[in-house]
Structures are given as structure tokens and as C-alpha cells.
Amino acid sequence: MARQKFVCGNWKMHKTVAETAALVRELRSALGDAAGEVQVAVAPPFTALAAAVEAARGSAIEIAAQDVHWEKQGAFTGEVSAPMLADVGCRHGIVGHSERRQLFGETDEAVRKKVGALLAAGVRPIVCVGETLAEREAGRTLEVVDRQVRQGLAGLSVDELGRLTIAYEPVWAIGTGKTATSAQAQEVHAAIRRILRDVGAPVADQIRVQYGGSVKPENAAELMAQPDVDGALVGGASLKAADFIAIVKGALR
Ligand code: 13P
Description:
By secondary structure, this protein is an alpha/beta fold. The protein has a single domain (6-67, 77-231), classed as Alpha-Beta Barrel (TIM Barrel). 44% of the residues lie in helices and 15% in strands. It is built from twelve helices and eight strands. Helix 1 (17-31) runs parallel beside helix 12 (241-250) and helix 11 packs parallel to helix 12. It is globular, with a radius of gyration of 17 Å. The structure holds 1,3-dihydroxyacetonephosphate. 1,3-dihydroxyacetonephosphate binds next to strand 8.
């Protein structure tokens, strides 16, 4: 079954409100019909989500959050809940990004709770998984990804599984300029697809698995031409309109 490609820009801790509105407006005017054939989203910081939603209104560009807390509300200073993300107009929420795992101690258990909270609020999770360089060199890539996928998605119904996206982001490729080769990406994406079949049989072939890690206009089309690479989660190159547009167009080829 053909899966629609899904390209999401993860802006990380970049862009003010004004810069966000300007970039979203630039994307919407340049992408026109391309956004639609390819599913396109951007994930600005929390402070700029409302401005992004406003700037994207009436276009096919969707807005994603970069993180979420699993509780609906309460005494959790500094956190933002899934119903709050739904309220501001987010369609997607990224969870389990390796920067959250490595710099902020996010565990597979936290990822599982965040996925559940997003789904309950009607926001679609983008669940990030990926091995470190040490894990890859020790031959543990598939074992690590297997654990992250199974534990992050534990207990979900078939219907819930059908609403999420997985992003395979090898940690050694993030922000390093070192992209996985298309063969390396395809190998892990195919393994993720097998795990998805194992945990959610009927919908496994509908779930998009994005690749992330130094995706650029020069490598995007080849990566996304792999049978199990269904799009991209783009960091640095999503901050410049021309690069992000070229990557989205790479998904059309
Ligand atoms: P880069 O594209 O900057 O390597 O970042 C990838 C990433 O972490 C997207 O979530």
C-alpha cells in the first residue's frame, strides 16, 4: 500500500514569533500544491505555536509541538499538556527525541505516557527512536530500536497505532552532517516495520516511518526513495525556507 510521504521540520530552540510567522508564510506560498501531495508539518518552539497555527491557517501546512507532558494539568512548572497543544491547534506532537532522551533524561516509560496523552487529546504522536554511535558500533542498533519502539508503543490499540508516525533518527547523524546511507536507513526502517507488524499487525503498513539526521536537499530524495522511508524529520535544514522546500519536493520524486 502506498503511504503518503510526511516531511516535518523540527525547529528545536530556534525562531521568535515574528520569524516563525515569516517562515510559515514563505513555506505556504512556495509549497502551494506540493503541500498536500506530501504531508508537511513544522514544529516551532512552544512560544511560537499560536503564531505558526495562525500563519498556516487555510493551507495544508500542519503544526507540531516538540514535546509534551503526560498529565492533563497540575503542578508541573514549565510543562505543557496535550490538551493545551490541541487547544492551540497542534496536529502532531514529537516525543522521545534523542535530545530529550540524552539531555533531559526522557525514558521509554515517559515516551509511552506522552504518546498516550497525545492520543487521548487528539494530537498525533511522532515517536523518535534511534541508536547512539557506541550502540551502532557494538552491533546493537536493531536491539535498541526494538526496545524503544515496543516500550514506547506498549498497550496501544490498533486504532491508536494507526494514528502515529515513527521517526528513525540515528543519534550519530543528528546535527553532525553525517547522514545514514540510504541502505543503512532502509535496513532499520524495514526492521521497524517488522516490529510494527508484530505489535499492531493490521495497520503496520499504513504507519509512516520518517528518517531524521542531517537530511538536506542533496540527500533527501534518495533517502525517501527507499521503500520503507516514508518521509523525513528535518532539523537544521528546516530553518531555511529554500532548503526545506527542496526537501519536501524531494519527497515527490
Ligand atoms: P538535523 O537535521 O539538524 O541533523 O536534526 C535532525 C533532528 O534531530 C530532527 O528531529
